[in-house]
Each structure stands twice: as C-alpha cells, then as structure tokens.
Amino acid sequence: MSTPPLQGSLKPYHDPDVDTVVNGITSGDRHMLSRAITLIESQKPEHERKAHEILDRCLAKKKPSIRIGITGSPGAGKSTFIESLGELIINEGLTLAVLAIDPSSRQSKGSILGDKARMEKLTGRKEAYIRPTASSGYLGGTSPKTHEVIVLCEAAGYDVILVETVGVGQSEVLVDTMVDFILLLMLPGSGDELQGIKRGIMEIADAVAITKTDGDQSGIAAISRAEFEAALRMLPLKHAAWQRQVILTSALTGKGIAEVWQNISDFFAEMQNGNILETRRREQLKSLLYTVLEEMLKKKFLSHPDVKASREHVEQQVLSAELSPFSGAKKLIEAFTRRQ
Ligand SMILES: Nc1nc2c(ncn2[C@@H]2O[C@H](COP(=O)(O)OP(=O)(O)O)[C@@H](O)[C@H]2O)c(=O)[nH]1
Ligand SMILES: [Mg+2]
C-alpha cells in the first residue's frame, strides 16, 4: 500500500519551488524577491543550488536598469542621502531598489550614529524596495553576491538600483564591477583625507557629493569643493567622455539632490552613446567571473582533505624557516592536485 503524496500539497507554502519563486519575482511579488535574496545569501549548499537555478532563470528576464553605487565613510550621510535621492527618483515615476547597509551590523560598518539609516520614508513607498545587505566576511557591505541580488532586483523590474557601500579597500573595487555610476559622499572639511586611502576611491568615483552643507557648514563646504575639484583634475579620467563634478548637497534641506540626479542622467545619456555602457557591463561580468572563480577555488582548496591534513605542518615548516612560503604553497598545491 502506498501513502498519499501529502508532501506535494504542503511544499508550495513552506518551500516554494523554483518556478513559483521566479514567477513571483517577475510579477512583482516582493515577498518572493526577499526569499530569493535570502537563498542567495545563505551558506548552505542546498540553498546555494536552488538560488543559482533561480538566478539563471532570472538572468533571461532581467530588464535594463540604472545601477548606482553610493559610497562614503560611516556617518558621511549615505542612508539619509539615499532617502532624499530615492524620493526624487520615485517622484520622477521610476521604481527603486535599495541595497542598504544594515545599520546594526558592526561588520559592514553601518553608522553607529543613527537609526535614520532605516529609511522610514522610502520604506513606506510601494515604488521602493529596501533590502539590508548581508555581507558575511566582507567589509563595506558589498560582496560578489551583491551582483546576484542586483540581477534579482532587475528581474523584478526595478528601474533604478542603489547600492550603499562603505568605501574601504576591497569593497569599492568590487562595487565598481557591479554598478554603472559611483557617487562618492564626503563630509565638508574632509579634503585632508585625499592624500590617503580616499585617493583610490576618488579614482573610481564618477561624481563627488559633499554632504550636510547646511547650517554653519556652508563656508567650509565651498573650500572642500575647490579641494576636491583640484584633486579630481590630477586624476586620470575614468571614462574619456566624462568629467566628474563636485556637488554641494544637503539631504536635510534638499539642496543639490536634483543636481545630483541631473548629473547621473547626463552620465547615462553620455554612456549610451556608442554603447559604452554595454561594453563596460560586459567587462564587469568578465571581471566578476574571475573574482567568483577565485573565491570558489580558494574555498575548494582549503576544504580539500589532503590540504587540510598537511596545512598545519606546512605552516610550521614555513614558520621555522625549513621551507620558504613559496615552497610551502607549492607543497599544498601538490597535496590538492594529487587526488581530486
Ligand atoms: N545636518 C545634516 N545632517 C545630516 C545630513 N544627512 C545626514 N545627516 C546626519 O548624519 C548622521 C549620519 O547619517 P547616515 O545617513 O546614517 O550616514 P551613513 O552612515 O553614511 O549612512 C545622522 O545623524 C544624520 O541625521 C544632512 O544633510 N545635514
Ligand atoms: Mg548608512
């Protein structure tokens, strides 16, 4: 005697199949979109498998979007700025997905200053979808998985995707392989940061917005603007056809927000000439392919039983100068390739 297939009737509710999720996403069901993103972010192999099936199906369905990265130090005003820019974008009749940095996450360096980062105004709008990014193991709120989340949001039909990230080394390089336009937010009076780490971030920025230029910050903001303009002139152009602007803004008063949006619109108009955007997106995909491949290989390598077994011993040999780091690495590679 066989038992009736009870499981089949329960499954769709608890664990929707790939078809249900994909159809949900493309018909604008936010709940399905959120579920798919959770699967993408999961470390469990069975979730990963399903996530990639969903993702591959969504790739064919994604619609063209404007992808914008918003980067800057914690407290620079990114979340507040996104809320202000986001409202403007929605009022233009566009829909918006925000991949935000979770303010409660210390690892992704969310602002400790504020719950403003929760973006209450945007959260209440049906045209906006806000998702805090889980960036396990990554600084700055961006990981290679962010790209996958972007693809899902595009399949869901969002016109504009805003990615909030903290400018720290690896994260801004990574975000540059995922978005079309990077807006760097800087506080007034932060011109002295130009010498150090911020230089690298300046190089990948397509525009700089000086934030919080309200109240008594106006004087110092003008000086900052001149400093940033001078610094940008020293850098090679990122795109031959694009001169970066420095814009004074305040999310509090709304100053400069329309100017930023105009600048972004001009950029897209310029980049659509001669297919620059399309060519760049292809290069980005290639670069991402190798980033992900590197990650996968590393994971596979470090979890290989023979590598695991000899790793500590080789490490000791290197530390006691019995082996050079080069020979040590070679020995581990040999352990890895001996038995696949
Ligand atoms: N005066 C002023 N304060 C702002 C402005 N934008 C943000 N802030 C404040 O700066 C703090 C950090 O902002 P937040 O958006 O969380 O920064 P994030 O860490 O870069 O996302 C909060 O206390 C905000 O209220 C602005 O335009 N003017
Ligand atoms: Mg924030």
Topology readout:
Elements lengths: L5 H9 L3 H9 L3 H12 L3 H15 L6 E7 L5 H14 L4 E6 L18 H4 L4 E6 L10 H12 L4 E7 L3 H6 L5 E6 L11 H7 L2 E4 L7 H17 L10 E4 L8 H16 L3 H28 L1 H15 L5 H14 L2
Parallel strand pairs: 1-4, 1-5, 2-3, 2-4, 5-6, 6-7
Helix pairs in contact: 2-3, 2-4, 3-4, 3-7, 5-11, 13-14
The structure holds guanosine-5'-diphosphate and magnesium ion.
The site of magnesium ion (MG) has 8 residues, from α5.
Structural class, please?
A: alpha/beta
SS field, number of helical segments: 14
Q: Helix and strand succession? A: HHHHEHEHEHEHEHEHEHHHH
Instruction: Report the CATH superfamily of the largest domain.
Output: P-loop containing nucleotide triphosphate hydrolases
> What can be said about the biggest beta sheet?
7 strands, parallel
Tell me the radius of gyration: 23 Å
Bound molecules: guanosine-5'-diphosphate, magnesium ion
Specify the CATH architecture of the largest domain. Answer: 3-Layer(aba) Sandwich
The total count of strands amounts to 7
The CATH class of the largest domain is Alpha Beta
Helix content, binned percent:
40-55%
Q: Which band does the percent of strand residues land in?
A: 5-15%
Euclidean distance between termini CA atoms = 44 Å
Mean pLDDT figure: 86
Low-confidence stretches: 7-12, 112-116
Domains (count): 3
Q: Using the coordinates shown, work out and report the CATH topology of the largest domain.
A: Rossmann fold
* Tertiary shape: globular
Major sheet: order of its strands? 3-2-4-1-5-6-7
